[in-house]
Amino acid sequence: MPAVDEVLNEPGLSVAAAPAPARRRRTDLAAALSYLALAVLVLIQLWIDPAGRVLSHNDDDHGFFAFALAHGERVLFDGANPLFSDRMNVPDGVNMMANTTELALTVPLAPVTHWLGVGVSVVLLLTLGLAGTAFAWYFVLSRHLVESRRAAWVGGLWCGFAPTMVSHANGHINFVSQYVVPFIVWQVLRLREPGRAVRGGIVLGLLVVLQVFINEETLLFTALTLGVFVVAYAALAWSRVRDYWRRFLAGLSVAVVTAAVPLAYPLWFQFTGPQSYSGQPFEPGKFVTDLLALGAYARQSLAGNAAIARELSVSPTEDNSFFGLPMLVLTGVCVALLWRNLAARAAAIAGLVLLIMSMGPELRVGGHDTGIPLPFALIAHLPVIDLVSVTRFAMVPATVIGLLLALAADRFPLLGRRRRAAFWIGLAVAIVPVLPKPLPVVEADPLPPFIAQRMWREYVPAGRTLVTVPLPEVTTGRSGMRWFALSGLDYAVPRGYFMGPANPPLNRTGSWNAAPRPTSDLLRITGAYGRKPNVSVSDRLAARADLAYWRAAVVVLVPGTPHHDLLATTVSELLGRPPRPVGGVQLWDVRDIVPPSG
């Protein structure tokens, strides 16, 4: 591959030598097993009881991805529409393409979900995401960019288990499943080779299709990074680029056409289909990277401090930088060592640009907005960009650091013994403090017999729904969402935690909640604040109208929910009837409330 080698095998870089096949296979196996062991360790507390525990830092997304996996099972076993679910948010449904439902993972994993349950599938995908991403980068590095398997292992370790990856392992299956990205990057670089425009473009296009059905946001980050890399490299070495830019663009064109054919309808459905939306439920500058977070340690790092991380990060799932001061210093050393290499320099520039983008429209330091404007303000409201949580752009420099570490580690054997020793000592000082701790979990309440023994089937006929109180919403009604997912979506529910339009057709801005309804708002406020509302005639009429709209058959109060007795009293007053105990729950039979026709 001489054309690629000209870019990547410059002073300080080399293409991997070919060790004996048997030795290479043993080394590869050892690398894979080491990554897998570390991933299991990170998720060990969830592995102990996948169905009975939830990730304590993010049980909302834990519940959502359980729902997505159950949907994947229904697609394979029941022929459900993969792009739309009519089982949640009845009667409006959920646009699955407009949510991070990972169809490329949930559908193939449907047999596991069917036979072992969604709990096992959730922890399995999180584990394979961490380990698989690490091994994918190890594979590409060891085959194409470095001679030393040790250097490739170091790069894979960081790319798969950097603080941002471990942070997103708190339920974000879509963000830890990055094992396609290294191959996309490599295929893009190979497009400059003679004779690869068609073949390479087709391969790249198919990889893009696969990544779209895993996580579009990661694909966007990858595309932006590669775009900055190409521009930076062209600016640094136009004399080389002008010899192959035509075939590079030809290959990209083939990739675009290849991807566009299978993606045309799903993307049309995502952006214009039922329950589609535009924008996020927050301003672009709300969730950004704090400057001080770069040198701090994340909650789940060995040296992490939860109190400090809370001040510098928006949530435990968004510790997207937190490299630690030693790693920042070591990264600077790597850049200096590799400075003569234009490809490494362009990669460093791309990482820096995306890091600055992650800081949002104005600089934030120590949790305080400084008012200092940043370049992101110029593009904050562009289509597609406005769908991104800005701090996640910092995931890119995290990966770039991993690549620079591998390239530098591969270069150091050419230096003196003392400098080699200093590098490996510095690497240990930088990496050890950010090694991950097991993710925290909490015990989930056991399913009541009404759900576990499917007693609900006696009360919920086809076309009707089971309404849990609290209703499933973001940050509330988590038990109801969990019941629904663990049941395999056997019954339908109103509302839920997902992304959809805030209040269509008047407001199609993205929201984590279904469109507001009087009864859901009243019960949510009652449960959150523990204050008994004065239930009026209009409240009772609204409750009947809402239950009819939701096609409700029964209303079920979740056992052990906060302010349980107050909620029971409120629901009884709204419905004008008392509950009766059935299978460990309080149940109101509302089958007499007839849904609207059509």
TrEMBL record:
Source organism, top-level taxon: Bacteria
Keywords: Membrane, Transferase, Transmembrane, Transmembrane helix
Record domain DUF6311: where: 84-407
Protein source organism: Actinoplanes nipponensis
Pfam families: DUF6311 (PF19830)
Ranges in a coiled coil: none
Regions crossing the membrane: 29-48, 115-140, 197-214, 220-236, 248-268, 321-339, 346-367, 387-409, 421-439
GO MF terms, alphabetically ordered: transferase activity
First and last residue of the signal peptide: none
This protein's name: Glycosyl transferase
